[in-house]
Amino acid sequence: MENLHQSISGTKYPIIQAGMVWVSGWKLALACSKAGILGCIGAGSMSPEVLDIHLTKIKTAIGDLPFAVNLPLFYSKIEEQVQLIIKHRVPIVICSAGSPKKFTSIFKENGIKVFHVVPSLQLALKAQDAEVDAVIAEGFEAGGHNGRDETTSLVLLQELQGNLDIPYFAAGGFGTGRSLLAAQVLGASGVQMGSVFVPTIEASCHPNYKNYLCNLPSGATKLSLKPLNPVRLAPNKFFEEVQKLEQRGASKEDLATLLGKGRAKLGMFDGNLEEGELEIGQIISLVKDVLPAGEVVKRIVREYQEAKELVRRG
Ligand SMILES: Cc1cc2nc3c(=O)[nH]c(=O)nc-3n(C[C@H](O)[C@H](O)[C@H](O)COP(=O)(O)O)c2cc1C
């Protein structure tokens, strides 16, 4: 699998384990980097103090392997997080939910590569203008917060192809080796996968949530809270309340009141399956067991190699 991705991310395989609030702490990132992909710590749910601990732990254990930190840019203590990433000499930062102009130059001046998550060609071009090293193009299928325009990964990749000078990774709905090969055929240097790494042993989220996800049928997730901040959710009591409010044409304020504070932590980290917010992507319908992350990577790599062989044979 020698490819452009090796010069960009330095990993054996062209896969990024996505940064995910309440899910991807240092243990998951370490397991993924050890398995040959780019492990990523999700800083979005961490105070600067907690991020410092996770960075210290991964730096002690990871040796020379590459890893990344995902940094949603709307966080109030963002400046402190940026300083921690520089202090710990994190090799790659994956920014999301904010302007790529904001911190790209400071990271690059400190020898840190910058990837930026985008939901459209228009924002990919903006990120390119801001001189990021690569973009991660995330389609409608993805778990977590999402773009409003509902562009699927398949369409987004075709829109990007031939229109960007920098490398791009695909995200949203990728969970198998075959889908990785398909993304490469569409010009991507690799894929970022999130949902398939949620039900893993090393993920920091609650076992209730992991086990629940392993039983979701196809089509169970929905992009919810669109007037507020679109997020793809698994069904539960909270999700039904959101649906009811949305059907009644609820205002942004009504939705914000229902959401309140701490819903994502309540669902994903504390394991409250009724009242919490359970973020997850469409591809979760394929996952039936909680496994070590390294096993998930092995399966994807095996499928990828089989798919390549099939294509070669015609
Ligand atoms: C539980 C969960 C939490 C997420 N949290 C974040 C986050 O903190 N920052 C971010 O940029 N994206 C976040 N995402 C999106 C992922 O980084 C990734 O782009 C997405 O999961 C890819 O699509 P997939 O779920 O179909 O694999 C999250 C996704 C999930 C499933």
Description:
- The protein has 314 residues and is α/β, with parallel strands linked by helices.
- The protein folds into 2 domains: 211 residues, TIM Barrel; 58 residues, no CATH class.
- Helix content is 40%, strand content 14%.
- The protein has an 8-stranded parallel beta sheet.
- It binds flavin mononucleotide.
- Flavin mononucleotide binds next to strand 3 and strand 9.
The CATH homologous superfamily of the largest domain: Aldolase class I
User: What is the rounded distance between the termini?
Assistant: 19 Å
What structural class results from the helix and strand content? alpha/beta
Helix content: 40-55%
Hetero groups: flavin mononucleotide
Please give the count of helices. Answer: 13
- Total domain count: 2
Query: Which CATH-level-2 architecture of the largest domain?
Result: Alpha-Beta Barrel
Order of helices and strands, N to C?
A: HEHEHEHEHEHEEHEHEHEEHHHH
User: Which consecutive residue ranges, at least 5 long each, have pLDDT under 50?
Assistant: none
Average pLDDT, rounded to a whole number, is 95
As laid out across the biggest beta sheet, the strand order is 1-9-8-6-5-4-3-2
Shape descriptor:
globular
Q: Beta fraction of the residues?
A: 5-15%
Instruction: Give the radius of gyration.
Output: 18 Å
Q: How is the biggest beta sheet arranged?
A: 8 strands, parallel
CATH topology of the largest domain: TIM Barrel
Pfam families: NMO
Organism: Luteibaculum oceani
GO molecular function: nitronate monooxygenase activity
InterPro entries: Aldolase_TIM (IPR013785), NMO (IPR004136)
